[in-house]
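re: the backbone from monday

yeah here it is again, tokenized this time
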């Protein structure tokens, strides 16, 4: 009987973990907005969260401490740039779900990211992206995934854009072939004036939605200090995004100079200036480190040779202590900014009026990609793609690669679609038998 009691406790703990990780309604992209499964428009109040270089979502105790502080701050999302798909993320994902916090996760790593100078999109990269998607698709609070972050960082870097779009094509095809839910797949761009708005339009143009981004986001550091909607450049961002057919949001923001960080741009993002077009913002970043963007610290700077937990002398775990007055400045803004948005039931009928933007054409001193050129196939080199594009079909006719549509399992991946409720049913049946 004692053994049965231990088994029962263990099974109930597993059930609670599954339920906790599934406690938030799933996010989907509909037209130009995000919606929760219960029909409410979702605005992102996010924080960049990368405590360590490899994966910050493995330490459940630390995630619980940070999730609690983020909840007090008013955050409802985090962005994580690098993860290990073979790790156990259930504890951290449950901790953030319990705090009402969603995850936007980058699929690439330092070794698999698309390189601007010599762009490639090959099976090794795709398999690595698939492995991350396999791992995080099982959590209801996974709100979206990025196929790249600031791949294009110069005016003359647009030759890499077709490789970003090829990644979007193949990741979405894989997602659908595995019958995963429609987790939004998008891209996070550097704010390069010479590429604006060509890149955002390129990733959404054409009539084949299967190869286009589900959302577009921009890393923006324009509103610094005591600025304004017109003076900061945000008015131009709004102009470029007006009428855009997919969700758009700011995936990094928060100038650190002049100090202190005021976060006055949040009033425009979540107010009348932008809330009808933009879906929120992610503040860079959670932890205080050398770059001095942190909203919290885990204690005073230490000698990194003495403390192995401290990179560059900044502790990477512990009790989060707000950086003053930055943390409270953001907290005060978010507490008063709660746009009502629109209900899905009232909005869905209007999406037919949204049209993809026109594919951009080459411009002098900036964008160099013919927007209707065929995308590179899996493994195609930059030189071969450039040659093929002169005679190929428009972008809208490009097909997904064979390996993506074949449904092959990426190394290290786990097929767990529908696992939650099935696991609960089995456990409950076993409990009754006991």
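seq for it, each position gets an aa:
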């Amino acid at each position: 009987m004692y053994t049965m009691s231990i088994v029962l406790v263990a099974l109930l703990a597993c059930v609670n973990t599954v339920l906790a990780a599934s406690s938030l309604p799933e996010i989907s992209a509909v037209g130009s907005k995000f919606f929760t499964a219960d029909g409410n428009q979702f605005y992102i109040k996010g924080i960049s969260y990368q405590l360590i270089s490899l994966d910050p979502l493995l330490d459940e105790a630390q995630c619980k401490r940070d999730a609690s502080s983020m909840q007090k701050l008013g955050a409802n999302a985090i962005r994580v740039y690098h993860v290990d798909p073979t790790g156990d993320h259930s504890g951290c994902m449950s901790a953030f779900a319990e705090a009402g916090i969603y995850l936007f996760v980058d699929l690439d790593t330092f070794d698999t990211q698309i390189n601007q100078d010599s762009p490639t999109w090959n099976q090794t990269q795709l398999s690595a992206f698939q492995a991350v998607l396999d791992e995080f698709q099982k959590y209801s609070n996974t709100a979206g995934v990025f196929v790249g972050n600031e791949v294009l960082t110069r005016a003359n870097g647009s030759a890499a854009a077709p490789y970003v779009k090829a990644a979007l094509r193949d990741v979405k095809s894989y997602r659908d072939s595995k019958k995963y839910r429609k987790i939004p797949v998008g891209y996070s761009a550097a704010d390069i004036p010479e590429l604006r708005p060509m890149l955002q339009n390129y990733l959404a143009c054409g009539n084949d939605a299967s190869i286009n981004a589900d959302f577009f986001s921009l890393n923006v550091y324009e509103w610094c200090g005591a600025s304004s909607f017109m003076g900061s450049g945000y008015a131009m961002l709004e102009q470029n995004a007006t009428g855009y057919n997919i969700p758009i949001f700011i995936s990094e923001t928060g100038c650190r100079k002049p100090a202190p960080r005021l976060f006055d741009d949040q009033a425009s993002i979540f107010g009348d200036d932008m809330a009808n077009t933009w879906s929120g913002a992610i503040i860079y970043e959670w932890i205080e480190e050398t770059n001095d963007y942190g909203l919290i610290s885990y204690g005073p700077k230490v000698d990194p040779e003495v403390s192995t937990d401290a990179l560059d002398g900044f502790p990477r775990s512990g009790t989060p202590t707000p950086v003053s007055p930055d943390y409270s400045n953001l907290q005060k803004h978010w507490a008063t900014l709660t746009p009502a948005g629109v209900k899905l039931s009232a909005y869905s009928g209007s999406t037919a009026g949204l049209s993809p933007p026109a594919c951009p054409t080459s411009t002098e001193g900036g964008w160099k990609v013919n927007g209707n050129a065929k995308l590179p196939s899996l493994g195609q080199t930059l030189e071969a793609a450039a040659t093929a594009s002169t005679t190929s079909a428009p972008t809208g006719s490009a097909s997904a690669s064979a390996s993506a549509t074949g449904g092959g399992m990426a190394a290290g991946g786990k097929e767990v679609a529908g696992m939650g409720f099935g696991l609960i049913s089995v456990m409950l049946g076993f409990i009754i038998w006991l």
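The chain has 14 helices and 14 strands. The longest strand covers residues 142-149.
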